[in-house]
Amino acid sequence: MTATAPQPTGERRPVLQKRIKWIVTATIAYNLVEAVVAITAGTVASSAALIGFGLDSTIEVLSAAAVAWQFTRRDPERWEKGTLRVIAVAFFALAAYVTATSVLALVGQVDVQHSTVGIVLTALSVVIMPFLSLAERRAGRELGSATAVADSKQTLICTYLSAAVLIGLVVNSLFGWWWADPIAGLVIAAFAIREGIEAWRGDACATSVGMLLEDEHDDHDHDHHGHRL
After folding, report:
1. For 109, phi and psi rounded to 5 degrees?
2. Angle subtended at Cα 127 by Cα 140 and Cα 151, rounded to the nearest 5 degrees
3. Confidence at residue 35, expressed as pLDDT on a 0 to 100 scale
4. 192 touches 94 (CB < 8 A)
5. I need a labelling partner for 195 at 20 to 30 A (CA). Which of 66, 96, 128, 208 fits?
């Protein structure tokens, strides 16, 4: 595999790897808190969008955990397709649930209550997620890690979802437009379907994993040649 960008030095590489691990850990921890708070607040306010947002955060955590588990295996490539399929099914299930609840809310004209907690949570996400995404993307690019760059894009998608839910909650609170919440829920469902299709096909993530594995094999080959010499 031919490198398209200069690789970091031996001293810099461990620093970048450690930085990415910390960023990913912080992202997972935040998503866990976000999921619990969003689902709870959404249930209290009868907000399909807020509940869907919380479920999406849960799947993002499970997705990261699945990939982390995959790379603890002796042969990560062997588990790649199965891991991606599990992630895809989870996203499809989320899309089906949020679509059903949003449509029922629209048909039944469910009265969505004001949720201060939901507004604060989504507003925080709009601020925090881009910062985490940018930090991971910069470190990933310098390190040459396609997986880290791809993961940073997933984090950025969370920002868009946060903004959609925030707009729905604020509009409902200010103008009493109850339909804004289920519409935001349908936006989340659309994003979930898109992510599910990409995971099922293996787009981006599969390519990234393959690139890392190829780099790893190249490193091992160089080490073996060095020992032989």
Report:
1. 50, 55
2. 25
3. 94
4. yes
5. 128
Quote the CA–CA distance of 23 and 137 in Å, as a whole number.
10
Query: How many beta carbons lie within 10 A of that of residue 217, not counting itself?
Result: 12
Instruction: Identify the three-state secondary structure at position 201.
Output: helix
Quick one: tokens of 129? 């997620």
Place of tokens 């881009």: 130
What is the model's pLDDT at position 34? Answer: 93
pTM of the model: 0.70
